[in-house]
Amino acid sequence: MILKIAASLNLLFIASGFVNVSAQATVKPVQKIEYTIPSSYKLEIPEKDHLTGYLGERYKINLEQRLLKVDEEGLLEGFYSRPGKQRWIGEHIGKYLETAANTWLNTKDPRLKEQMDRMFTRLLENQKEDGYLGTYLPENYWTAWDVWVHKYNIYGLLAYYGATNDSKALNAAIKIGDLLCKNFGTGAGQKNILKSGSHVGMAATSVIDPMLDLYMWTGDKKYYDFANYVISAYDFEGGPAIVSTLLKQQRVDKVANSKSYEMLSNILGLIKMYRLSGNTDLLKVINYTFDDISTNRLFVTGTSSDHERFMDNQYLRADTAAHMGEGCVTTTWMQFNTQMFSITGDLKYYNEIEKTIYNHLLGAENPRNGCVSYYTPLIGEKPYRCSITCCMSSVPRGIALIPYLNYGILQNAPTILMYEAASIKDQLTIAGKKLPVEFNIKSAFPEKGTATIDVKLAKASKFNLQLRKPEWAKNFTVKVNGKTAGTTSGELVKIDRLWNNNDKITVAFEMPTVVLDGGKSYPNYFAFKRGPQVLAVDYSLNSSIDINKANLKYPATANYTLTDISNQLPKDWVKTLLFSANLPSAQNPDNKLVLVPYADASQTGGFTSVWIPSVGK
Description:
617 residues; Immunoglobulin-like; 10-stranded antiparallel sheet; 7-stranded antiparallel sheet; signal
């Protein structure tokens, strides 16, 4: 039997999965709760979504080089040998299970299924009878990062349950939720949650997010009440005052100690609470957060944070010393925008998702070996490591979400959002009946701005197909069977017609290279962006020129012409694009600079710079 089931993904996505008939039927009765605020975009994996292009290759690397090679003992030893070596060591297994479950839902890879089943079983062997599933000794329960660890265990357990329907996972998550409700609150003998976590309590209070997932899975109102307790605790003495500060100041750098990851994790929970309650004050908080970060605190590569904190307006230091672009912040910012795109269908959120994916998210995982950088600078060597840290576990979580975002149902219509090569199978609901459909996308994107989409249908059917027109694309054209088709509404081209089997859609667009200014932090510097990809200078490919001594002239025009020299890439590079730019200086009008996408730069350890110094701006 096939069911529609919800997988956590830290976003409570809905996905198709197979019931595990061997699961123990001991779970409490489930009365699923739906959002009061409906979804405009369904975060749902179709029957098949196999990415085969650039993103498909990076998704495969995340599976083959990161997930399947994860240090299983390292992720679990804190539970077997309490206390753990680190105070937060327990968070990694939950992040792994969430990433693995989401990836398996899309790939059905048997190796991954065997691995995640094994790790799930071993994790549950360490859950105490009362539900405790942390890495602390009893005398230190609920201190420092203990609630934080349980938060990620709930994420992982719910994601695993959503993928496999194994009721042991939901039971384990429920036991954790019940234990948290018992220990924290304002009743006699209960603890103040602010005292059980770092960063003005924001680490512990971020458990609001998976507790609302648990409420929606079970319908048990005590988890919803717990989330409201957390929101009230923000304003307890010494609390982070997240809601009240954002309502008043509309700036995230004024909240608590401005710790980015923990704050955004809380705001993900506030998004879900808004979707459940319709509280308009929470919507204001969410909108202020987006407006402030996207306008004042976002790097051109789609991340934020300096020493893991939000800094002053336009203070965007990009070198290694700034400890910028924490991987956990990158993924959480992507999750924030994914939630908002799901709610509103507003493509301004999708534009941020795309920016993050093609630049800082992929840039944080080495395509050669799957190792991850904790902080990923725009100027400096990317410090890729394969050891276990929070970001090494977070970045793969973000990459695992990509198949939820290249295609989906937006405002009740199938919508192609990215022009990556892919094979997609779905079932549309047309006049109350299911219609199997396939979209086979052939494309060389992001190398070229062309794609063909073959439509496969069992019978001719009338429906509206939508194609996203990227904000960076120029001269965007769509043809069906050689004839111009569709009407443009904002960033969407809508084609409402009678579709026949083997109809062919051709999409073409230009990807101009634009010049980005270094702004307040890097005056007299510039960078290049082609399509969604920010480009970078990798010094290992530029031995003939030192950009810091070349006295390059600031480009005279906003658009720039590059020469594709991808056939000159070194053999030891994982395939990417390579461009040559003619950047004259007073001494040498024929300077040539070699550029690669930032996401692929530094893969061989080379010093990388997005920002290029210039003279004569």
